[in-house]
Amino acid sequence: MSIRLTDAEIDRLIRERKHLPPDYRSPFRTKQKHGHQEQELDFTGVGGNKFRILLRQSNGNPFDFSVILALLPEAGALFRLRRYNGKSHQHTNGIENQTFYDFHIHQSTERYQDLGMREDTFAQTTDRYGDLEGAIRCMLSDCGFIAPDDRQTRLFGEEW
Hints:
This protein is an alpha+beta fold. The protein contains three helices and eleven strands, in the order αβββββββββαβαβ. The chain starts with 6 loop residues before the first helix and ends in a 14-residue tail after the last strand. Mean pLDDT is 87; it is low at 150-160.
């Protein structure tokens, strides 16, 4: 069962304050999957909503990555609120009939849900990052995260 959210609900969830624990780098679990590495971290926002950060990066292409902030609903599949992608593939916004090949940020929208498409189909190009680390920093900055200190350091272990 999937959920449907309005643009106002999506915005509220993105802006919800999210405190990162002091050891937020260590709880990430690394998994090897079909040519890429994945890590994830579940946590609860100050409003009581449950979220997951997912990191994925190709083993062979450093520009093939995703940094995802998802809502973990009580029932149903993950709802991807934001997705920060690398410059590794062409993307097309179906409603706008706009195609590009660049670093880009996906945003969940009511319009795409109304058409039965994935909630985060819409994306815009960005020059705010050029690698996985930069994408992580953008997501932390854009999505209401409060770091345990002033440094926005690596989210995952040195093995990457």
